[in-house]
Design brief:
InterPro entries: TAT_signal. With 114 residues, this protein is α+β, with helices and mostly antiparallel strands. The protein has a domain of 62 residues. The chain is 39% helix and 16% strand. The chain has three helices and four strands; from the N terminus they run ααβββαβ. Strands 1-4-2-3 form a four-stranded antiparallel sheet. A hairpin with a 5-residue loop joins strand 2 and strand 3. The chain starts with 9 loop residues before the first helix and ends in a 5-residue tail after the last strand.
């Protein structure tokens, strides 16, 4: 006859419970992405202002770094305090750049306003 198995001591049961709890928490953390630090997937909306700026830059031959040597700017792109973009004549854009008119000069353009 075999002798009955001794029951595990309170310490051993507590340790086993802690290990099980840790394993469950690790699985939950991996599934929710908190342990790996993975960013939650999100889709950022496209920026219509950026698309508009790209179109204006192409249409009017604009540059944010200045025009080629010898080219005289004819117009400019300004950004209002609210973030709106607009085409203005070069003099108005230059006034904004010097701080004598409102807005922020974004680019100078080779082609005049139409």
């Amino acid at each position: 006859m075999s002798s009955p198995r001794p029951s595990p001591g309170p310490r051993r049961r507590l340790l086993l419970g802690a290990v099980k709890l840790g394993a469950v928490l690790a699985v939950v953390a991996v599934l929710t992405g908190t342990l790996t630090g993975a960013p939650s997937p999100s889709v950022s909306p496209s920026d219509p202002t950026s698309d508009r700026l790209d179109r204006l830059m192409t249409l009017h031959g604009c540059s944010t770094a200045g025009l080629e040597d010898g080219a005289v700017p004819a117009s400019a792109v300004l950004r209002s305090e609210e973030g709106a973009l607009r085409m203005v004549d070069f003099e108005r854009g230059w006034a904004a750049d010097e701080g004598t008119a409102s807005g922020t000069l974004v680019a100078v353009c080779a082609r005049p306003l139409t």
